[in-house]
From TrEMBL:
The lineage of its organism: Bacteria, Pseudomonadati, Pseudomonadota, Alphaproteobacteria, Minwuiales. The keyword DNA repair does not apply. It comes from Minwuia thermotolerans. Keywords: Repeat. Gene3D superfamilies: Rhodanese-like domain. This is Rhodanese domain-containing protein. It comes from the Bacteria. Transmembrane segments: none annotated. SMART domains: RHOD.
Amino acid sequence: MTDDLIVTPEFVEANLDRIRVIDCSVWFETKPVGASTIHGGRDHWLRGHIPGAAYLHMVDDLSDPAGAYPFAIAPQDRIDRVLSEIGIERGDTVVLYGAGTPVAVTRAWWVLTVSGLDDVRIMDGGWQRWIAEGRPVGTGEERFTPSRFRGVRDEAAVAGRAQVRQAMETGDALLLNALSRPQFEGTGGTHYGRPGRIPGSVSLPANELLDPATGAFASPERMRELLAGIDPDRPVITYCGGGIAAAAALFALRVAGHGDLRLYDDSLLEWSADPDLPMETGPAGDPAAE
């Protein structure tokens, strides 16, 4: 298993003059039904951040304001604009971190990776670990020389409803649900219109891959254990409620060396809203599942 995509605070501090760093802090306020409310972290960034770090907001900067569902990936020209404003070039090594809800950082990694940034990594443990280790802190605004970023969207990496339905019906790709196990089974937690999962899905909860309290990734040994049943040669489509937790699962699969990965961007916010599309509840394989 390669761990190049996950870097330590030590690596970041040692390479601040050679890498670009982006703070992706936001906080999720979950609801019993539907999409979470997202609280931005710009004020937190102004009070303290890794020296030289820019700030990007998962919704305001990286999502589509005209999207049919919350959190849909922003159009390429919007990504080009926000990255140009903070001086990012396509050849840069970019390290992401956050102080809030950790899956927002993996979501930012996915958006930037499929939008033409070739070398995007995540700092393990986020802001909490950086501070706990006594590393330097910058405050206030940072100044950046604008660039002319022009990325190319990897459209094949973004799955739509038709592809997901085909995978459900034919098994040509593994459908991987990244929500918590109670959400997967339809027994608890937030649901997105109808509880449960897309039939035929398997469960890989993001909160077992990435600690929601600390932003620390599972150990390599634990990661291998969690991914052991997934064929590395089989195409995978990850999904969740709105494409956020799904990015954490996809990131873990990429770290483990899986190649053919797609993310269902609108996820259950779209799927469960269509009464003609089936949902399943109960433990996987339970004959009583609906």
